[in-house]
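call fold target=D-fructose 1,6-bisphosphatase class 2/sedoheptulose 1,7-bisphosphatase
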Amino acid sequence: MDNVIGLEIIEVVEQAAIASARWMGKGEKNTADQVAVEAMRKRMNQIHMRGRIVIGEGERDEAPMLYIGEEVGICTQENASSFCDPNQLLEIDIAVDPCEGTNLVAYGQNGSMAVLAISEKGGLFAAPDFYMKKLAAPAVAKNHVDIRKSATENLKILSDCMSRSVEEMVVVVMDRPRHKDLINEIRAAGARVRLISDGDVSAAISCAFSGTNIHALMGIGAAPEGVISAAAMRCLGGHFQGQLIYDPEVVGTGLIGESKESNLERLKSMGINDPDRVYNAEELASGETVLFAACGITPGTLMEGVRFFHGGARTQSLVISSQSMTARFVDTIHMFDQPKSLQLH
Ligand SMILES: O=C(COP(=O)(O)O)[C@@H](O)[C@H](O)[C@H](O)[C@H](O)COP(=O)(O)O
Ligand SMILES: [Mn+2]
Ligand SMILES: [Mn+2]
């Protein structure tokens, strides 16, 4: 897959990040999101692949682009039949979040990125637009920590696996009322909590890299982001578990269906018969080959944000491949017209 999709997916996330970064700090989250979607789709539709969006924009608000089920790739171009034979192309499934952290972009805060994950057909869990309880941790704790255990127990296990005290541990949690008890428990156990307003994909993946000073992600975020995080963690060998949350009362946002009962029905209709199942990274991103790509929109723990200069911009991306077993940081200078100079630092 690396050979077919190659460096092109880097350009897909770069283009989305650049488009969105133009709206950084402008207080318009919908525009920051929309331009990222358009740019991502435009570049994606130049790739010689037969792609299908399995995780995309607004399942519920019937988004017009990059919606679940949308076909993407070169064959979607006008007059494609004259130059494109779909049967010659690799069939792949794609999970996208063109602007992960729309609020972060709109308010000029750290941690937003354009992100996607790719696998062969059927290789990514088509998560519903539900919430997901998540646990991410470094590779050394993989299969030792467990989402079914309490935060206190997991911190103890993490401490043993990482040979550092619980006090030396930093846990990222989304700053939401639903996490009040979790935050208290983590603090009582002795660990330190880093509260984030948005952007739990970045937090989850950061656990796999030492030096980020992020040792775990705990709590409830969105399920689609859970699958994207799992794709990266699967390639990196980090620990990731997710459990769907279908009871609106647990999250208290009223954003996931009318009732627990109707959500359970919906899961059943999707073929999910065990709604309480705990999925690990290899189950959420089960494909033989998994590719992950992200480009920083605003600066983050893993990547720089987009930096504009006269006539161009500089981006930093992260591309992770299960095939080549690489985590590649890509630093790119984009020339929009004739820049006065190419800025190195
Ligand atoms: O921050 C997030 C928002 O993503 P986006 O809409 O693409 O900008 C994600 O990282 C979170 O996973 C998630 O969407 C969030 O936790 C949803 O929870 P809530 O804000 O409480 O509804
Ligand atoms: Mn998101
Ligand atoms: Mn988004």
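return ok
The first helix runs from residue 2 to 5. Residues 97, 100, 225 surround manganese (II) ion (ligand 2) (CB under 6 Å).
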